[in-house]
Amino acid sequence: MPPEFRVEFVDLANADAVASKLPHADFIVCLSLSAEQVAILERCKLVMHNGVGYDAIAIEQLAARGIPVAITPTMTPEGVAEYVLMMILALSRQLPAVQASMQSGKWNMLGWREGSHNIAYKTLGIVGLGRIGKRVAHVAHAFGCRVLYTDVVDIAPEFEARYELERTDLATLLAASDIVTVHTPLTDATQNMFGAVEFAAMKLGSMFINASRGPTYDIDALHDAVVSGHLFGAGIDVFDPEPPAGDHPILQLTNVIATPHIASGTVERQYAINRAQFANCQRVLGGEPPNDQIR
Fold first, then answer.
1. pTM listed for this prediction
2. Which residues are catalytic?
């Protein structure tokens, strides 16, 4: 930590701590920040999201106060892409069920080979080709996947060519992909993007992976699609609400990997983010705009 800074931790659920600490903060690093909390800021020069998805931060209220907002994407694409690949590989080889079988004392060396699959030469559909989606394309291409994608933003032809990407619409992507992975921000357009209709439109025996935002999909509809056998399995790292109900039946399925919003979280990434955040504070103190400013 640079010597000119002092770090204080504030539990935003503690009203007394919020009231006593936030008005005196020069910089704020957070995952969420409400309009009410923005209203009591007095000295704040910059708010930084501790990652990339800033839908829980009161952006408009900060803009009205003239307080800039920045994200810290450092190493998030690498972390999430590796995590998504891990989920895809684990589901393809039925690892949760195999592990449970081994723990129960069974040895089924030949039986588990049925129903296990390679991902090489499979079609991977990426919904949202931003920083994270691009990194997923990179690793999927290295594994020999055909990669489709859909996005509202134009992608550089050089990037498309390098990874042999095929741009298409969502309906075509769902019907053609063996694996669908979601990497969109939460917006009006992506809210409830995946429900019963979309899961039914996916290829029979395909997988659904979501490490973006919980409100982008209907967890009950996903459960039904997996239980019916239409989907081979799913990997979900995000929920609505978070945490989900502990007794939700999807959490009991061995062909669903469910994790508590940790896809980007590694020691290496957190150190990299913290260094980038302090560097941003120093930039602002020196009269420069912050890196990765969104507003």
1. 0.91
2. 213, 242, 261
